[in-house]
Amino acid sequence: MIAFVCAMPMELRPLRRQLRLRKSALGYTGRINDRPVIGVVTGIGTARARAATLRLLDTMDVDWVIVVGITGAIDNGSPIGTLVLPELVVNGADGSEYRPTPVPVGSARGTMWTTDTLLVDPAVLADLRARGVVALDMETAAVAQVCDGRGVPWSVVRAISDRAGDGTVDAEIVGLTHPNGRANFPAAARYFVRHPAAVPRLMRLARGSKLATHRAAEAAIRAVG
C-alpha cells in the first residue's frame, strides 16, 4: 500500500477528489492503477507527524510513504506553486538528516528544513539559504525518522504556497489554523476585525495555498502512476 501523508485536510483534499478516496477507519482509501492507497492527515508539527506516522505503519501494510502538501520558500523570488523535491531533509531541532527516495516527476534539488518554529528573521533565512535550504516545513523530518526506523521508503512532493521572508505569514496567521490542521474560524473572525487591511494578504495566501496543494497532489499522483 502507498500512503499519502499530509499535515492538513486542505492538503489531502485534492487527492481525495482526484482519486475518489473513501473514508476509512484511519484515513481515506482507494486505488491508483490497481495499487491500494491511503491518505492520512497528521496534524501540524513534528510531534503530531511522528505519532500519526507510527500509527499508520503500526496499522497498515505500507510499502511507500509520500509526504504531500505545501511548503514555504526561502527565496522570495520563488514562484508560488513551484514543486519542491528536496535531495535532503534536515530536522532543524537536532540537525539529523534524511534522504528521500526520488520521485519521477522532476529533478531533486536542495534541502528542506523541518522546524516547529516559524522562521521569518532575514538573518536566519540568509544563513539557511547559504546552507542550501530551499524550503521550510513542519513535518517531513519527523515522518522520515519514523519511516527510516521501520525500513519503509519515503518521498516528498511539496509545492510552494508562500515565501518565508516576504511578510505574508506571521505568528497570528499561523494561529488561524488549529494544531490538527483545520481552520480556526473564530480566530479568523477576530483577526479580520483587528486587521481589516490584511484581507488582501490573506486572500493572496489562500490562493497560493490552493494552487500549491493542487500542484503537489497532481505530482504525487503522477509519481505513483
Descriptive report:
Residues 2-95, 108-191 form the Nucleoside phosphorylase domain. InterPro entries: Nucleoside_phosphorylase_d, Nucleoside_phosphorylase_sf. It comes from Mycobacterium shimoidei. It holds the Pfam family PNP_UDP_1. It is a single chain. This protein is 38% helix and 25% strand. The protein has a single domain (2-166, 207-224), classed as Rossmann fold (3-Layer(aba) Sandwich), CATH 3.40.50. The protein is globular, with a radius of gyration of 17 Å. It is built from 7 helices and 11 strands. By secondary structure, the chain is of the alpha/beta class. The model has no long low-confidence stretch (mean pLDDT 93). It has helices at residues 9-19, 46-59, 122-130, 140-150, 171-174, 185-194, 199-224; strands at residues 2-6, 22-23, 28-32, 35-41, 64-73, 83-84, 88-91, 97-98, 111-114, 133-137, 154-163. Helix 1 crosses helix 7 (199-224) and helix 2 (46-59) packs parallel to helix 4. Strands 1, 2, 3, 4, 5, 6, 7, 8, 9, 10 and 11 form an 11-stranded mixed beta sheet that branches.
Detail the topology: elements first, then pairings.
Elements: E1 2-6, H1 9-19, E2 22-23, E3 28-32, E4 35-41, H2 46-59, E5 64-73, E6 83-84, E7 88-91, E8 97-98, E9 111-114, H3 122-130, E10 133-137, H4 140-150, E11 154-163, H5 171-174, H6 185-194, H7 199-224
Parallel strand pairs: 1-4, 1-5, 5-11, 7-9, 9-10
Antiparallel strand pairs: 2-3, 3-4, 5-10, 6-11, 7-8
Helix pairs in contact: 1-7, 2-4
